[in-house]
């Protein structure tokens, strides 16, 4: 089997991830701030925060809050921020984990919202952001890397534009954390959301968010935290992590992030960019194939500003629906991909693919060039048979 659906969930996981989960389940359980049996054990949760801070370029790692994933994190931020009656901005590239909570907020709290349009390849142009960032806007929720076309947004410039107008910027790093350089502090992002099971190589059911100090946030959930048990009112930032944490998941995330740091994020990015470049150029040469996305620079370096294409793109074969294409790839060639709207319906209006969606190919650091070559051979055969 050739697995090219890494943007959904990464597979395989590095061996260290499996070992970390197994060790966590074998050992006596650590207690979340509760003392007792965890005395003397290392703080795996704290180490995970530190490693994430190192990878994502944020110093205040205590501001990282773990959740069940990006969807819960986005619901917490979208539902808990104080908009002071102002407008909310988002973009046409967003996943439904942003669009649906915002739509609910519009209905329940009557908050006005505007959607910033993207280009046909999923790019949010800074000049378009400038047009929409008028008086009255309070927060921009923006996808760093499209899960449909793989296009990476110029967050540094977009944040500068928004901050000049007093607008907070919350970035969804679900498709970029671990495979695209991120510099939260340098870019002056106000908040970010991440998921653990994609390019960070953790288990499903892991993720979280970071929110800059000083931004008020009403918790989504309330309950026990293992500290300040005599106080029953909302107290401080640690009240955002309530109940028993998913420690095996957090350990898997720690091990996944450590794997990326050991390889070097620059090396991870270079390999994935090489794979996606080969894929893009190969698909563009096949008659009857339409590609949605972009091609990385051949001389891509380690600088974040140079990265404009993540490790995913979409395509279609003329005369075949995306679902038929994926069926043939899986059952005739043993290649697993993803089809449909990819839970991001609005971007397909810009692409003209809103009826059937696209076939999405996404790679990870653990994929090899030979797998891309086999996919290209398969698409070449399928397109040739359909478009004779």
What does this structure look like?
The chain is an alpha/beta fold. It is 37% helix and 15% strand. The protein is built from twelve helices and 13 strands. It has helices spanning 15-26, 44-56, 70-80, 96-109, 126-132, 155-163, 184-187, 247-263, 265-284, 322-333, 347-351, 369-386; strands at residues 2-3, 64-67, 87-91, 113-116, 137-143, 168-172, 191-195, 207-211, 289-292, 312-317, 335-336, 338-340, 358-362. Strands 2-8-7-6-5-3-4 form a seven-stranded mixed sheet, with helices on both faces. Helix 1 packs antiparallel against helix 8 (247-263), helix 2 (44-56) runs parallel beside helix 8 and helix 8 crosses helix 9. The chain starts with a strand and ends with a helix.
Supply the key terms:
single chain, 388 residues, four-stranded antiparallel β-sheet
Quick summary:
This protein has 388 residues and is α/β, with parallel strands linked by helices. The protein contains twelve helices and 13 strands.
Task: Compile the SSE list and pairings.
Elements: E1 2-3, H1 15-26, H2 44-56, E2 64-67, H3 70-80, E3 87-91, H4 96-109, E4 113-116, H5 126-132, E5 137-143, H6 155-163, E6 168-172, H7 184-187, E7 191-195, E8 207-211, H8 247-263, H9 265-284, E9 289-292, E10 312-317, H10 322-333, E11 335-336, E12 338-340, H11 347-351, E13 358-362, H12 369-386
Parallel strand pairs: 1-11, 3-4, 3-5, 5-6, 6-7
Antiparallel strand pairs: 2-8, 7-8, 9-10, 10-13, 12-13
Helix pairs in contact: 1-8, 2-8, 3-4, 8-9, 9-12, 10-12
């Amino acid at each position: 089997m050739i697995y090219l659906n890494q943007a959904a969930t990464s597979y395989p996981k590095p061996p260290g991830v499996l070992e970390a989960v197994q060790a966590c389940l074998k050992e006596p359980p650590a207690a979340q701030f509760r003392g007792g049996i965890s005395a003397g054990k290392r703080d795996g949760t704290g180490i995970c925060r530190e490693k994430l801070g190192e990878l994502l370029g944020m110093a205040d790692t205590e501001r990282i809050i773990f959740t069940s994933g990006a969807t819960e994190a986005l619901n917490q931020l979208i539902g808990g921020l104080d908009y002071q009656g102002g407008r909310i901005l988002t973009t046409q590239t967003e996943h439904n984990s942003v669009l649906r909570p915002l739509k609910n907020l519009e209905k329940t709290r009557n908050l006005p919202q505007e959607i910033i349009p993207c280009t046909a390849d999923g790019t949010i142009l800074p000049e378009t952001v400038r047009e929409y960032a008028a008086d009255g806007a309070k927060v921009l929720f923006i996808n760093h890397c499209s899960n449909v076309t793989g296009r990476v947004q110029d967050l540094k410039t977009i944040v500068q534009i928004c901050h000049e107008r007093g607008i907070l910027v919350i970035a969804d790093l679900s498709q970029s954390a671990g495979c695209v350089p991120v510099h939260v502090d340098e870019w002056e992002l106000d908040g970010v959301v991440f998921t653990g099971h994609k390019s960070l190589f953790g288990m499903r059911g892991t993720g979280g968010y970071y929110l800059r100090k000083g931004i008020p946030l009403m918790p989504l959930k309330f309950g026990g935290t293992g500290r300040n048990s005599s106080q029953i009112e909302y107290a401080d930032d640690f009240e955002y992590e309530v109940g028993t944490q998913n420690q095996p998941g957090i350990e898997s995330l720690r091990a996944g992030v450590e794997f990326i740091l050991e390889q070097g994020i620059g090396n991870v990015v270079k390999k994935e960019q090489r794979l996606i470049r080969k894929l893009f150029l190969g698909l563009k040469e096949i008659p009857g194939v339409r590609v949605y996305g972009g091609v990385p620079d051949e001389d891509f370096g380690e600088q974040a500003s140079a990265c404009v294409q993540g490790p995913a793109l979409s395509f279609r074969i003329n005369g075949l629906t995306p679902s038929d294409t994926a069926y043939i790839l899986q059952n005739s060639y043993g290649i697993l991909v993803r089809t449909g709207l990819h839970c991001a319906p609005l971007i397909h209006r810009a692409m003209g693919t809103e009826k059937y969606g696209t076939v999405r190919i996404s790679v990870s650091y653990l994929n090899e060039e030979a797998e891309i070559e086999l996919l290209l051979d398969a698409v070449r055969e399928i397109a040739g048979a359909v478009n004779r």
